[in-house]
Structure formats: structure tokens, C-alpha cells
Predict the 3D structure of the following.
Amino acid sequence: MKSIKSFQIIILLLVLTAFVNNASTFAFNNNLGNSVIIKRDDADEYFTKGWQFIQERKYKEAAEVYEKGLKLEPNNRSALVNLSWMYLELGRYQDAVNTAKHAIEVAPDSAMAHNNLGYGLTQLGRYDEAVIPLKKALELDPKLKKAHQNLGFAYRSASRYADAVLAYKAMTEALPVDPDGYSGLGGAYAASGQNEKALEAYKTHAELKPNDVVALNMLGGAYLRLSRFTEAAATFEKASNLNPEDISSMRNLGRSLAVSGQHQRALEIFQKVEKLKPNEFETHYDLGMAFSIAKRFTESVEAFKKAVKLRKSDVGAHYNLAVS
């Protein structure tokens, strides 16, 4: 009888030991059919797994494990910065702002923490407020590309175009071979009506990205704003040749040809676009404008009717339909 009781006690102890061991672990499904076992009292394992999820672009899963790790180690510098980043990626902007503020309290010398705070504020529409942490980020790391871009974006969004120009100029000085600084500078100049300077910035951007369709479309747009239609058409044609399926390049080429008097070729391009995108407002609006410029008013009326049907609130389409 004593041996049976001893055996039962041993079994009970084994069960309790297993329960205690299991209670100190966390099983996290990694979406690959397996479970990742993490000790509940080991924050570093959560943080390591969080970084792995970031590398795999699994931002929701990364945020979840960082949150769990930070409950154990609430003032971990890199984890706070990374969690604020994940919240930004997930569109949880207020959470990103709150976490970035905590990161700054823990690590006031973290440029990325200040950048994340600034970017989160821009996404909440608090542009002027965002400028302060973004400037601080650049004070700490003058070559932090994201902070340069976010500062320029904050100024442009606040309609502070002169400040945006200065911000993007600073980016081109800090990162002279990075094309993105010049595209931002071109946009800031264009927004402030300085179209000649915008053109020069977009030229540099295109030189740094010579076979980039987006860069060529930006450059072509700069030529258009200056009514340099021949150069605009040549630039858009180059973009279209690089990627014949790019609808934006085709539309831009058609528009530049239409305003430069090459009506028939413009119509051929727009009709090609119509076959590819028959249910889009811009398709029929462009056709209507091209027919109108070519004085083919019956066809322009039909095109504008289709445009109005697709976007009933568009004032321009209604006006052009009325005057065609």
C-alpha cells in the first residue's frame, strides 16, 4: 500500500513539474505551421523573435512579441524604437507616437526615436508639431534619410514651401548622390511655383536614376509646367518605351502630344489606353480633351458623357461636356 501511495506522489510531482515548466513558456504561431517557444521570463528572446518577424515583414506578429517583451523589460531602448516603427507600419499612429515618446525618455540620443515620433505626428496631421522631433533627429544624425524626407513632407503638408525647399536642400547636401532628395526638392519648388528650379532638380533626379520611369515622368511634368511640350513628349516617350505597359507614361505622353498639336498621335495613344482601362474616369476625360483640341466635338461630347457617368461630382468634366 505504501508503494502505491509513493508511486502516486511521484506521478503528482511529475505533473506539477510539467505544469510549472509549461507555464513559464509562451507558444507563438509563426504562420508556418510551427510554434516558437519563448520563455515567459526572457525578454531578449521576445526581442530576438520580434526582429526576425521584422525581417520577414510580419509587422503585426513583430509588434505582438515586442509588446510582450516590453512588459518584462519596459525600458529596452531598441525594442521601444522598433515597436514604434511597427506601429507606424501598421497605421497605429497614436500608439507609435506614445511609444516613441517613451523611447525618447529612455534614450534621448536616439535619432530614430525622434524620427518615429515626428513621422507619427505627420500621419496624425500635426505637421508643425512634427517639425521639432524631426529637427532633433537630424541634429543627432545629419545623414538620417528618413528624417530628411519626413521633415520636408511635414513642411509641404503644412504649406510651408520655403521651409520645405530648405529641408530638401539640406538633404541633397547631406546625401548628394541620393536621388530622393532631388525629387523632394523638385516637388517643393513646383509647389511654390518655382518651375525653372523644379526642372533643374528633376533633371538631377533623372540623371541619378536614368532608366527610372517615375523619375522620367516627374521630369516630363516639369517640362509641361513650363510649356516645353516637345521636351515633355520626348521624356514621356522615353518612359513609355522603358515600360510599354505603364499607363501613367502613356497618358502623360498623350497629353503632351495633344497640347503640342500632334492630335492624331495623341488620340491613338488615348484610344490604346481606353482598351486597357475602359472604366476609369481619366481615360475618357483625356479622350474628351484630345477630341476637343482636335475640334472633333461630337466625339468629345461622347467621351465627356462617359467621364461624367464615372465621376458625377467632377466640375471640369461637366463644364467641358457643356461647352463641347
Remarks:
- Residues 1-38 have pLDDT under 50 and may be disordered.
- The radius of gyration is 29 Å.
- Strands lie at 25-29, 35-39.
- The first helix runs from residue 2 to 23.
